[in-house]
Amino acid sequence: MTHFEPTKNKVLFGSSDKLADWITEGIDQGKIIDKIRLMLKNYLELDNVSFLFGSGTSVHLGAVAIRNFPKEVEEFILDQGLKGEFYSTIEELQAEVIKGKLDKEVFTDVRGWEFVVDETIYRDNESKEIAIEYEKVLNYLIAKDFVLKEDKSKERTDKINELIISIKEGLFKVCDLENRPVSQTIIDRKKASQFEKDKEQGTLLETRSKYIFHEKFVKALLQRPLNLRRANIFTANYDLAFEYAFDKLGVHYIDGFAGFHKRFFKPETFEYDIFYPGSTTSGKVQRIEKVVRYFKLHGSLSWVNSESRDSNNLYGIEEKPLELIETLNNKGEIIIYPSAVKKSYTLDLPYSELFRQFASTITQSQSVLITIGYSFGDDHFNDIIYQALSNPTFTLIIVDFAGTKNDYIKSMKELNDPRIIILEGVFFGDFLTFSDTLMPNFNNVDNNEKVANTLNELFSSKATQQEPTKEPEK
User: Which Pfam families does the entry link to (predicted)?
Assistant: First the structure.
């Protein structure tokens, strides 16, 4: 039986904490979990279901969170001899963000996180990472490089381009999950029922699959009735955790790319689907079950600027295996993060198309968006979500470890809108719990487990019947 600590979790419908109410009413924890699972089942049976995943869904795999500038990327940049250029950039950005507070010893940002000054640079008080988002640094440098490139009156002596390449290459190394150890905390956490069962049997995560929780989520999601639209998975993560999980399960994913040996970005493929051919002369076809629509809104480690453009590659964007990208001399060709200086500026492809798909999908009637491990730190996403909330049939479910401790999510709670549901805390706000314990089982009983249990009962019964009867001792 899975247990959780009530004081470290919340289940908010609007501004009302239903979890506290249920505990007061004396409802046991198993029934509370059943209530939440049933609630999720009802929403997942809507026709238009979407998920938005943030960095909180990959941290257990060894990926770094990019709410601050990753320490490992910083160390990589320093190894490249770019210390002066890098730290001067950080000082410029922090002076703007912190608004002249660099002379103070401690700075607390809107998220409630505390940062301390180290010489002239603020760092996270716990992790010692530089207190500025990775994407903000990259975005700033790309914009600055563009401005300097346009000014033909001066000869450039800066190393901005080298710094951009170094930042991307450093991130590539820390987001390449295949070459990073799984966080030991995932082995130690008493989290999900099935995982505990595996641990009791002595089966460690590494001997099964690093991506077991992504696989569990996808398997549960694919149980939705086939008469519903394909589920949509949107992610802001650069890593390939979902891709590895899809491959392990044999799931087809429509991600905007087409081709085999050469895979190029073709946004029209988002409208494609996969069917079995008609088995009768009437031409009736049947949908293939294992298909999802998959959108990487901030780009991917596996996307690069293509060497050439032609009629088959109009956008100049190619998807490659990480093993080939590892051999590239210029990691600056990796396509990650939409580099608009301000959110009001026009985004270039592929981001303009990806964000258009996100907006058109979640703003349809009878839609539900479930965000998991996303801290609402991206204004592009937030604007689209706020727009969707203007639709009276839209529902937003937020699954986040910090929950309302985050000012962005707290502001959502303060809207007191019952269409906004927040699962918060070390249990209910965690991706591992969500994928393994909270995702509903649409088939009620897993067919394979049912068959296995039936066979075990049959063989057990047969063995009992054949056991020889012993003569009583005299």
Answer: SIR2_2 (PF13289)
Residue 384 lies in a domain: yes
Answer whether 134's CB lies under 8 Å from 237's CB: no
Report whether 170 contacts 72 (CB < 8 A).
yes
User: CB of 372 within 8 A of CB of 50?
Assistant: no
What backbone torsions phi and psi does residue 128 show, to the nearest 5 degrees? 65, 15
φ, ψ of residue 430 to 5 degrees: the values are: -105, 140
| Residue 288 sits in the same domain as residue 373 | yes
Same domain, 47 and 151: no
pLDDT along the chain (474 residues), means of 10: 84 95 93 94 95 91 80 92 92 72 54 60 81 85 88 86 90 83 50 44 53 94 91 94 94 92 89 76 74 94 82 86 79 67 57 92 95 89 94 96 90 94 95 93 60 65 54 50
Domain span holding position 79: 71-179
The amino acid present at 152, given as its one-letter code, is K
Co-location of 173 and 290 in the same domain: no
Closest CA to 45 of 366, 275, 339: 366
The DSSP code sequence of 140-187 is: HHHHHHHHHHH-TTS-----HHHHHHHHHHHHHHHH-GGGSPPPTHHH
